[in-house]
Records
---
Amino acid sequence: MIPSRQLYLLLLLGTVPGLLLASVGPDFSQPQWLGLAILLVLIWDGIVLLLAVLDALQVTGDRVQVSRNPLQRLSIGRENPVELVITADQRSAVLQIRDDYPPDFASPTSVYSITVSPHQTETLTYAVVPSKRGEYRWGQLYVRQLGPWGLAWQQWKVAQSQTVEVYPDLVGLQALSIRLTLQATGNIRQARRMGMGTEFAELREYATGDDPRLIDWKATARRDRLLVRVLEPEQEQTLVVLLDRGRLMTAQVQGLARYDWGLNATLSLALAALHRGDRVGVGVFDRQMQVWVPPERGQRHLFRLIDQLTPTQPELLEPDYLAAVTVAAKRQTRRALVVLITDVIDATASSELLAAMGHLTARHLPFCVALRDPQIDRQAQTPTTAIADTYARAVALDLLTQRRLTLATLQQKGVLVLDAAVDQISDQLVDRYLQLKARNRL
């Protein structure tokens, strides 16, 4: 039995008559009047406590039924809904429910209140945000039901333990898949593919603004109206993603490790490439190549990538960029777009990265993707008046300057560069890839 607020108020109310009796009696200093006042308070408290016990016992035969819907794969860094199903019997029920979700998960509150009408079933939905990937044990449900008189709660446990897995951003992948499908079917118009590919897709009528060089004169003569060729980017090309899991990728940025932002971007890029018919391979490296998934095509390959990359975690090791690039070049001899996802600081700290990416330009199209911390951007852009804040802003500005110089050096070597905030990297990387495809840069 758990006392309710109403019970405490009634117990407090019981002291009032005793105090009045003790203060207005013939001689309140005499022990008999004080003893009588205490006796009255004890009798009142005893009656109230007995009623509270009876109130709690009434819940025993009329408990609600509470269960948690089975949990599926959860997405890191996303609000994942959790549904609790509550069914009341003959009486309405006032409840407090606490779900024993893993302590590493964030949620707006830990205790949820709900009132369920008689013979009704309600669904209580709340959200959890995991900050790390892996397997987690979900515990029991703790339920409190208020008695019909409102004097006490009865508490019990509901066995609902299960193991759940936290994956990369599957919600983002689903949204990206929908967007790519809409683009492919023409429901979203973009600066499109006309004349920017190499493979013939279809004929359509000439519209204002079309390139006259794409007019198919033979088809125009046969059908007696201007027709133009629609060209698509070449398919069945190869994309290789090298994902750094070294020291710089262990830093926490906006609640997630930088490596997790990079992993989400890797899978988003892989989905876009597989959707366009390309072959995709992925390597995860630190001092050596830890995971290598050979290039394949098809949507099933995405599930293989998710299963093999999800268990990987960043390590406090200095990455060997040259070794990773060498391994990838040996295993992928044909020309490919090689995307290396990492972070850069300055030319000195990134000297090995500069040398490694330069080795790729002879045979492949190298692409360096840098994951930027948005907090540094905000620090550099915020006006300051205090001396300490001014120093912090100066450091942020210097970091950004050194970063731009390093990336400019990469571009001079013929390397494509993308520098974006971690929370925007997936979308910008996919858009950049689609632009490269449309311009036939691969």
Note: The chain has a mean pLDDT of 89.
---
Amino acid sequence: MKTFSLPVLLACACIAPASANSSEPTTSKDAKDIAVIKQIEKDMGDAMVAVDIDKLSQFFADDWVTTVPAGKMATVTKESILRDFESGNDKLEAFELGPIDVQVFGNIAIAHGSSTEKRTRNGQDASGQFVWMDILEKRAGNWVVVKGAGGRVK
């Protein structure tokens, strides 16, 4: 749990000061954006299961990065995650999403939720229950994931 806490706290620390200085409401309850972002999260998992690299590529911004949850500072990029799925080093066999909470701050959104996954990494079982958070940005009219964090909880 410690490895997940640091990325989440850092993301919150980055968002909070920006929203604290505004006199206007900071979050949007735009049902359309929220529904689109929730669908992106589901479609991203479906593309991973199907190993649809072209579709998966559309969800991640070219500058997307995340860190590995094992307490290491290794960075995972869009290029490396797509390569891992294409090669079979990372294989998501099945997943079930739990509730997803989405907050929209103009052209930035935060989605966080949980999932139960059956998966392998480098030939080893990596199945379990996970919590995750994605930061999305609306670019050229489309929501894309720009940062992610998550960790296994069970």
Note: Confidence is low (pLDDT under 50) at residues 1-25.
---
Amino acid sequence: MKQQISRFSPHQNGKVVAVLMAVVSLIVLIPFFLIASVAGVGERAPFWIVFVIPIVYLVFGYLSVVIGCALYNVFVPILGGFEYESTSKT
């Protein structure tokens, strides 16, 4: 059965993606800074950047998803939504 997504909730999707982006950036940044400090490269980059980058990712991730969802909701009546096929298990 083919179905189409008729609307995305901008705020809800923005919250989820923003938090995921912030968490993933921490998962990547902390080991990166630890390895860089052991290698002697970390002295050039201040440690506070580990806290700033996830916040930047959170804000820009939220804004980009909200804008993307809003644009999707505007163009859905014109172009049709994402189409997917699903089956029910019995």
Note: The longest helix spans residues 49-79.
---
Amino acid sequence: MIGIEDVLGIALVLVAGLLLLALGIPGWKPRHLTLRSIPAFVRLWKSISLTIEDGKRVHLTLGNSSLLKATNASALVGMSSLERIAQLSIASDSPPLATSGEGSLTILSQDSLRYIYRRANSLRQFDMTSGRLTGVTPYSYAVGTMPVIYDGNVSTNILIGNYGPEVIYINEAAERKGIYTLATSDSLSAQAVLYAAAMDPLIGEELFAVPAYMKFNRYHEASLHTQDVLRWILVAALLGGVAYVLLQQLVGITFR
């Protein structure tokens, strides 16, 4: 038998789906729904633009989590970001570099880059070595990524994925080269290290906002607005519940 909790859960999913579809319609979005300003993304856009203009490379590292694990959400965020960076770099002679510490992520990054270049009718520019497996253990992956930063003509460094504290080696390589670095992870240990060491760290759920702020797809931005609307609905429900309890206690009215 279906209980009230099941009905509320189904209703919440339906409301979220309808909001996502409505807010994702091209050309339709309430004016007051805007993304809050995050200075790190402003600096990221500037760094990517200067990198492409100078004929250098954007390096994005995707972590070492398997796609079969629960920690793969951050890698998928990184993959969306990689596709967007590839779109921006089509006119450049230097395609972006993607490094990872897990075989399936490497194959997926190569396929994503190939897809972007095929869509732009520039498949000749695609280089299979743009997606690289730099190590199969956490520390070998981190150490194997360092030469890419030192010798890969890199000017912008982006870390999005699942890491451990070994991520400090990747960040340190970028710091020594004076390369702009934006870093985020779903791992608490990596967040702690990056918050103290990275030039522009993103904390918590800001990780999942990266594709929206990079304007990869309108539905990424719509998902953030949907979350905001759902938060207000939750706040209204909590306040309504508090008001109901107070009304019961102070007035003695019971609603049936």
Note: The domain at 39-216 is CATH 3.40.50 (Rossmann fold).
